[in-house]
Design a protein that fits this description.
elongated, alpha+beta, 3-stranded mixed beta sheet
């Protein structure tokens, strides 16, 4: 039993000849690099923490990966990498002049509270970059997603 487990584990961690995928030990799926499925959208390099040293309990900083690690590293530098503040709505969004909502992905939930702000309860809208606009059925506010690229943690916050 142990020898068959070792054989499976040895095959799983062996490097692959393909430059586009890699196999993770004890996983049934291959990891796909971001350039393989995002077209011209460039996602950040998925980073991996160093892990805990033997005899220590791992912290978030040394065990986090991917977007969580990106957020934690940004917090240590005092940068809100996902810009979690609400969008300042100073006007009514129209079909000709929609309210622009930046997004890292093709889909995003938008909470509309009307114009002027808080004129109605929050209505959640499912917006997509595949549609021209998304309109609130209560107040008529029009929103448009604008695809943005993720910047490195070192550059985040300096372009505003």
């Amino acid at each position: 039993m142990l020898s068959s487990f070792r054989a499976v584990a040895a095959r799983a961690v062996r490097p692959t000849s393909s430059a586009n995928t890699s196999i993770r030990a004890l996983s049934a799926t291959a990891r796909i690099r971001s350039a393989d499925h995002h077209g011209d959208h460039h996602a950040p390099v998925i980073s991996v923490g160093p892990g805990a040293k033997p005899g220590e309990v791992a912290t978030d900083e040394n065990q986090s990966t991917g977007l969580e690690r990106y957020q934690i590293l940004g917090q240590h530098k005092g940068v809100d990498v996902f810009d979690m503040q609400g969008i300042l709505v100073t006007r009514q969004g129209t079909l000709k002049d929609p309210i622009i909502v930046p997004t890292f992905s093709k889909y995003r939930q938008i909470g509309c509270t009307g114009f002027p702000v808080d004129s109605h309860d929050t209505i959640w809208l499912a917006a997509s970059t595949e549609r021209e606009n998304t309109r609130c059925p209560e107040c008529g506010n029009v929103y448009k997603l604008q695809q943005v690229q993720m910047e490195s943690v070192e550059d985040a916050g300096h372009s505003h």
